[in-house]
């Protein structure tokens, strides 16, 4: 038995919405240990209220699904001769070790991302990526012009106010968060735009925090 996800917060369960993540299996085993193998309503209730799995639809943790998943997990346990330890305890220990390994793998992945980000920031500061950034900018501009041939003429006809230049990470974070918050405010909850803005808001917060850390790390090395 193995855990299918390597994400530290198991938010990628959307790739297979019917499969339990390692974290969810661990929480299930802990709930069964606390309430017993015949208290599935209580087990289901405590899982539904757990903040770590709020991305799941509440129906996912119904008592029948919890019972069936626990049955599958215990059925897959290897029977050890003369082992008097209850199955739920052995299951929880096994899942705990798998979860620890999962988190370690995620930390390694994030460390690699951080190292790459620090390297790119260093190259940008030195001006070594100027040519590449210009090429990418030209490609985006060309793509936008091709998608809307009248874009350039429209832009010339419209008197656009002078844009405020963003000079700090704090200003960038303020503007991005404000834009996405407005999207949440002016779109009905549950719509595609609302859900996309919500997902982007969480991702932006994580990326900005990573950038802040990388930036402070780089300054300390200067």
TrEMBL record:
Residues 166-198 form the Bromo domain. The keyword Coiled coil applies. Pfam families: Bromodomain (PF00439). InterPro entries: Bromodomain, Bromodomain-like_sf. Keywords: Bromodomain, Coiled coil. GO terms for biological process: chromatin organization. Residues 93-120 form a coiled coil. The keyword rRNA processing does not apply. GO terms for cellular component: NuA4 histone acetyltransferase complex. This is Bromo domain-containing protein. It comes from Rhizopus azygosporus (Rhizopus microsporus var. azygosporus).
């Amino acid at each position: 038995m193995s855990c299918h996800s390597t994400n530290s917060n198991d938010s990628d369960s959307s790739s297979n919405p019917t499969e339990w993540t390692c974290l969810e299996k661990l929480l299930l085993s802990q709930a069964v240990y606390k309430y017993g193998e015949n208290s599935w309503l209580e087990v289901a209730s405590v899982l539904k209220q757990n903040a770590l799995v709020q991305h799941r639809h509440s129906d996912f943790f119904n008592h029948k699904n919890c019972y069936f998943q626990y049955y599958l997990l215990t059925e897959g346990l290897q029977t050890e001769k003369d082992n008097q330890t209850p199955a739920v305890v052995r299951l929880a220990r096994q899942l705990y070790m798998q979860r620890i390994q999962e988190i370690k793998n995620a930390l390694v992945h994030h460390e690699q991302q951080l190292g790459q980000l620090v390297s790119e920031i260093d190259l940008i500061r030195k001006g070594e990526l100027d040519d590449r950034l210009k090429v990418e900018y030209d490609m985006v501009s060309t793509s936008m012009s091709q998608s809307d041939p009248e874009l350039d003429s429209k832009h010339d006809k419209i008197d656009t106010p002078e844009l405020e230049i963003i000079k700090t990470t704090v200003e960038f974070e303020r503007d991005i968060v404000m834009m996405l918050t407005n999207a949440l405010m002016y779109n009905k909850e549950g719509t595609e735009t609302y859900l996309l803005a919500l997902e982007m808001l969480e991702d932006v917060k994580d990326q900005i925090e990573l950038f802040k850390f990388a930036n402070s790390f780089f300054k300390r090395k200067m």
